[in-house]
Design goal:
SH3 type barrels, alpha+beta, flat
């Protein structure tokens, strides 16, 4: 019921903003009103029109002429003092996340944060490069530590590879675990000999646990 209510709300929200923009002579509601003599609204018309418009915009911008207009627009934005910085940062993030076969979040891991003895779920985003890598004489990786229940905010940490514990759960399962606050817990897919560790047993160092879990 919640899913249905959210779907109906989304359809009505899009329709309420898109349908009024349609010229009356092109609006299907106009022909239905003339046909039946009273007003009839077809739910989802706005969603269909929005999908068609987005598809057309994507097709145009992917063409040679469209790329020229996009390049001209980017050059104009690049000359704006404040907007250029915001646009460049957003563009770089979006290209990284939505690139074909993107591995923005490559693996789910455990890391001791915010102090030793406390563990949190994080996501590997890459290997530390550039100035950060040259200043720290260790094999560092970039990890993103999301917050609960909103994983879009979080912290970027540069952590030694030996200090993280690689998880067998998928990135999607790890996100569900974070968003639910631990209520949705994925099953343990490790070999049977590594499951059901009795409470109170000493936790092995991160490097050893990482090796046992295939990391």
């Amino acid at each position: 019921m919640i899913t249905l209510a959210l779907a109906l709300w989304l359809v009505n929200f899009v329709d309420s903003h898109i349908v009024p923009l349609i010229p009356e002579q092109w609006n299907p509601d106009t022909y239905l009103r003339e046909l039946f003599g009273f007003k009839i609204s077809i739910p989802g018309i706005g969603v269909v029109i929005l999908f068609v418009v987005i598809t057309l915009i994507g097709w145009v911008t992917a063409s040679y002429l469209g790329r020229i207009f996009v390049r001209i627009g980017e050059n104009i934005v690049a000359r704006m003092p404040v907007v250029s910085g915001i646009y460049g940062a957003v563009k770089q993030i979006m290209e990284t996340i939505f690139r074909n076969q993107s591995q923005a979040f490559r693996r789910a891991v455990l890391v001791e944060y915010p102090r030793r003895g406390l563990w949190t779920v994080a996501f590997v985003t890459g290997k530390a490069e550039g100035e950060v890598r040259s200043l720290i004489d260790e094999d560092l990786i970039n990890i993103y530590v999301p917050t609960t229940p909103n994983p879009t905010s979080g912290f970027l940490l540069f952590v030694p590879k030996s200090d993280v514990v690689y998880l067998d759960m998928t990135v999607e399962e790890a996100f569900k675990l974070v968003i639910s606050g631990g209520l949705v817990t994925p099953p343990d897919r490790r070999p049977e000999g590594q499951q059901n560790i009795p409470p109170g047993d000493k936790i092995e160092p991160p490097a050893k646990v990482a090796n046992l879990s295939g990391g």
